[in-house]
Write a structure and sequence with these properties.
Layout lengths: L4 H4 L1 H6 L9 H4 L1 H6 L1 E5 L3 H5 L2 E2 L2 E2 L9 H4 L4 H9 L8 H10 L4 E7 L16 H4 L6 H11 L3 E6 L24 H19 L5 E4 L6 H14 L4 E2 L15 E2 L14 E5 L17 H13 L2 E7 L9 H17 L17 E6 L2 E6 L7 E4 L6 E6 L2 E6 L1 E4 L2 E5 L10 E7 L17 E5 L4 E3 L3 E4 L5 E4 L7 E8 L3 E10 L8 E6 L2 E6 L10 E10 L3 E9 L9 E9 L14
Parallel strand pairs: 1-4, 1-10, 4-5, 5-6, 6-7, 8-9, 9-10
Antiparallel strand pairs: 2-3, 11-12, 12-18, 13-17, 14-15, 14-18, 16-17, 19-29, 20-23, 21-22, 23-28, 24-27, 24-29, 25-26, 25-28
Helix pairs in contact: 8-10, 8-14, 11-12, 13-14
Bound molecules: ligand FHN.
The site of ligand FHN has 8 residues, from loops.
Length: 587
């Protein structure tokens, strides 16, 4: 068995009041950025109910692991159901082999979901698979060891807020009225001690995946600090803190099945289901095909993210047959095309009519979802010379490359190798230099400039705002900027407006918006929390020349505070003579 590292280092450190120095986030994240694809496993007593309790069914597409909550199953009754959890067909090596064959690089199992049942031997609570059920085995131990043998990374999901079994946990008000709850007591008695157990007994964890956030940043930081003190290399996902606050973990988590509209400048992951539920439901047969999963993976990776794809095993440890079939298809594709996924970075080239691109060093991988009928694939937006191209799955088949009117043209065979995604590796001279994105065109009202087409510079970052939206932030000095190139058709007066959120720390910080040669300086105004956006009128600008023009925004001076959470600039065409005065004009 693995020798618990924290027994030597972390616990000793904790006893002596020491904290192990955590490496910088960029170092901790190195493997994560390389890995791209992981397996999420939702498995627990709810898997035994399989979407039905006493004739009440979880609707197809809804979350079967929420069954206790949905039907308010009393704790005493659910506990009895949990006694029957006896997964005699569970074989950790088989599960891990499945993940590996699918091309996944990490595995994350629900160590405790919202129902409060621990899927490992917990000294904190006897309500765990070893002490509570006839199974007597520890899946966390078996899976962590199987992952180690197979050279996959292993992490745990832990529901640190929701606990429908503990009287003070969040969410069960049918057995335990809210008024009598002491959430701090739950944190101290169960949640924090169980996370400590997980970090000290199963060797190095690649990450702890917290869910649904904490009420206060102070509570969340206790979990972050616990992880850092016991396993400094272990990642903490973005849901450790309150959703209303900025990120406290190492990387952003999209919402469930979430997908950003464009690339982000920060590390992120999206947890996604294979049908409509996380935990097993025998009713939900709306399985995603291998092709769908492959194209999602490519889209996620082309936007700089990681795909944590869920499976929901049955209560006896069997993996549903459609899950096996899908993962097998994905694995076959990954075996031939994995190079175009692992270690790639977000592509500056937005979606092409035929598919998407991923980037690594001097290679652009063209993921062709829709095969061109004229035998020519056109790639726009690359400034480099393209030297050679070949089919990634059959490298001996080189393809003719040429350039025409700014586009790189690749001559392709009549038929694709793979109808879901045929990958073409395009070698370019040096690291990718993207041409400026296409000029932003005006609608009838004017221009809307948001994060999607923005070019960020310096520390300015395109980020997820944790309320389901996106913005540009992390700018603290004049070198941190966002800019757009516009194609001006109509000259004349435009009203310039800015939409952003700013917390009180940012109040008064000056910023400069340049519209062509004209500069507007204004000061940030507090709007509330970090996704409470408000729009401000910056005044009128007359655009005198048609053609390309640059608009940019940057902090006016260096500061130790970040400027604002920027949503968009708009240039609204003024059709009539402007009236006097502008509303809400910041100074
Ligand atoms: O409520 C849970 C849900 O059951 C599942 O665990 C997902 C996975 O991301 N997280 C929560 C909802 O966001």
């Amino acid at each position: 068995m693995f020798k618990p590292i924290a027994a030597i280092a972390g616990l000793a450190g904790a006893v002596m009041g020491l904290t192990l120095a955590a490496p910088p986030a960029a170092d901790r994240l190195r493997w994560f950025r390389e890995a791209k694809f992981g397996m999420f496993i939702h498995w627990g007593p709810y898997s035994g109910l399989a979407g039905e309790w006493k004739g009440n069914r979880i609707p197809i597409g809804a979350e079967a692991e929420w069954i206790m909550h949905r039907f308010n199953i009393p704790v005493a009754e659910y506990r009895e159901l949990a006694r029957g959890f006896h997964p005699v067909k569970f074989d950790a090596a088989t599960w891990v082999a499945l993940a590996k064959a699918a091309g996944m690089k990490y595995v994350v199992l629900t160590a405790k979901h919202h129902d409060g049942f621990a899927m490992y031997k917990s000294a904190t609570s006897g309500y765990n698979i070893v002490d509570w059920t006839p199974f007597k085995r520890d899946p966390i131990q078996e899976l962590s060891e199987a992952c180690r043998k197979a050279a996959l990374r292993f992490g745990v999901y832990y529901s640190h807020r929701e606990d429908w079994d503990h009287p003070d946990g969040f969410g069960n008000t049918w057995d335990y009225p809210a008024a009598g709850k002491d959430f701090e007591r739950y944190l101290a008695q169960k949640s924090l001690p169980q996370v400590r157990e997980l970090l000290t007994r199963y060797g190095p964890l690649c990450l702890v995946w917290f869910d649904r956030g904490m009420e206060t940043p102070a509570q969340a930081s206790r979990f972050v600090n616990l992880v850092r003190s016991l396993q400094p290399d272990c990642l903490v996902n973005g849901r450790v803190g309150s959703y209303a606050q900025d990120l406290m973990g190492d990387y952003q988590c999209m919402g469930d099945n979430g997908m950003p509209p464009g690339g982000l400048d920060e590390p992120w992951e999206t947890p996604q289901t294979l049908n409509g539920t996380w935990g097993y439901s025998r009713f939900d047969q709306q399985w995603k095909s291998a092709g769908n999963v492959i194209q999602r993976l490519v889209e996620i990776v082309s936007k700089g993210g990681n795909y944590l794809l869920n499976i929901g095993p049955m209560a006896d440890g069997t993996i549903p047959a459609p899950t096996l079939a899908t993962l097998e298809g994905v694995g076959a594709w990954m075996a031939r095309n994995g190079e175009s996924i692992y270690g790639t970075t977000a592509s500056p080239i937005l979606e092409a009519p035929w598919g998407r691109t991923t980037v690594k060093g001097d290679r652009i991988y063209l993921h062709v979802f829709r095969w061109p009928s004229d035998g020519v694939l056109r790639l726009h937006g690359v400034a480099n010379e393209a030297t050679t191209a070949y089919l990634l799955a059959e490298p001996a088949r080189t393809l003719k490359v040429s350039r025409n009117e700014g586009a790189i043209l690749v001559s392709v065979p009549e038929r694709p190798l793979d109808p879901d995604d045929t990958v073409i590796a395009l070698k370019i001279a040096g690291p990718l230099r993207a041409e400026r994105p296409p000029l932003v065109q005006a609608s009838d009202e004017g221009f809307e400039l948001d994060h999607l087409e923005a070019r960020t510079e310096g520390g300015a970052m395109k980020r997820f705002n944790r309320d389901g939206g996106f913005h540009i932030a992390k700018w603290t000095g004049p070198a941190d900027a966002a800019s757009w190139r516009l194609l001006v058709g109509r000259t004349g007066p435009y009203r310039l407006k800015i939409t952003y959120a700013a917390r009180k720390e940012s109040a008064g910080l000056k910023y400069v918006v340049s519209v062509g040669a004209r500069e507007f300086t204004a000061a940030a105004v507090t709007t509330g929390e970090w996704f409470r956006y408000a729009t401000f009128d910056l005044g009128l600008v007359t655009i005198e020349k048609a053609g390309p023009m640059t608009v940019s925004i940057r902090p006016a001076a260096a500061s130790d505070r970040e400027l604002m959470y920027f949503k968009s600039l708009s240039l609204e065409q003024v059709h009539e003579p402007p009236g006097p005065g502008a509303s809400k004009r910041p100074r």
